[in-house]
Amino acid sequence: MLSKRSAIQASRQLSSSRVALEGSKKKARSKAHEYIPENVEYGSLSKAQKAFLDRVVRVDQAGELGANYIYMGQYAVLSTKFPHLKPVLQHMWDQEIHHHDTFNKLQHERRVRPSLLTPLWKIGAIGIGAGTALISKEAAMACTVAVETVIGGHYNQQLRVLMNQFNIPIYDKETKRMLTPEEITKEIETSPELADLKSTISTFRDDELEHLDTAVEHDADKAVPYMLLTETIKLICRGAIWTAERI
Ligand SMILES: [Fe+2]
Ligand SMILES: [Fe+2]
């Protein structure tokens, strides 16, 4: 009789402690979902990650400066000769000015030194823009196709690195405890700094691909000699990217 009572008691205790355990598990689970950007802080970036970000800002600033000057050159030559192209060129140029301004700002904020070859990028870009426009309006559009193909690919490459190689520790802001992988939700997995940079790059990448489409719509492929022009300009762009990342 006694043993039956104690068995019932034990069973009640067990089930109440199971309920308590379930409750605390539920609490822990809901706590895992409680983390929002406001109650976490991010560990610092490694030296290599910082160096990569500096390179990104330096080369992208130089690239957007180049794009700004290419469109400046195209616009100077084509806008009076072909008035119907004026709004098309102006729209793309305006976007490049915005891209250039954004990376100028980032460069100041992050104190990244600009590429030492900035004067060369300006002269080269205006030369390519005006030079191709002087050949023909189709050659100018072929130049846009080449430039935007390379820049679009370059931005995609940067995004891939930012997505795969930038895992940094995340801490509970109050307790300073490092969060477990289960506690890291989509909302908090990227620091605001990185999230901003990623969103800037992907927005600009989309703009560049839109410029590419615009150039195709405006007969880039009718440029003569199309392959020679685009392949040469692609080569120049890749060389400029390689150099601006380093010098
Ligand atoms: Fe751009
Ligand atoms: Fe562009």
UniProtKB/TrEMBL annotation:
Catalyzed reactions: a 5-methoxy-2-methyl-3-(all-trans-polyprenyl)benzene-1,4-diol + AH2 + O2 = a 3-demethylubiquinol + A + H2O
Binding site for Fe cation 1: 64, 96, 99, 208
Pathway note: Cofactor biosynthesis; ubiquinone biosynthesis
Gene Ontology MF term list: 3-demethoxyubiquinol 3-hydroxylase activity; metal ion binding; oxidoreductase activity, acting on paired donors, with incorporation or reduction of molecular oxygen, NAD(P)H as one donor, and incorporation of one atom of oxygen
Cofactor: record remark: Binds 2 iron ions per subunit.
GO biological process: ubiquinone biosynthetic process
Residue sites binding Fe cation 2 per the record: 96, 148, 208, 211
InterPro entries registered for this protein in UniProt: Ferritin-like_SF, Ubq_synth_Coq7
Function: Catalyzes the hydroxylation of 2-polyprenyl-3-methyl-6-methoxy-1,4-benzoquinol (DMQH2) during ubiquinone biosynthesis. Has also a structural role in the COQ enzyme complex, stabilizing other COQ polypeptides.
Family as reported in the entry's similarity comment: Belongs to the COQ7 family.
Subunit field text: Component of a multi-subunit COQ enzyme complex, composed of at least COQ3, COQ4, COQ5, COQ6, COQ7 and COQ9.
Family matches, as HAMAP family: COQ7
Protein name, per record: 5-demethoxyubiquinone hydroxylase, mitochondrial
Gene encoding the protein: COQ7
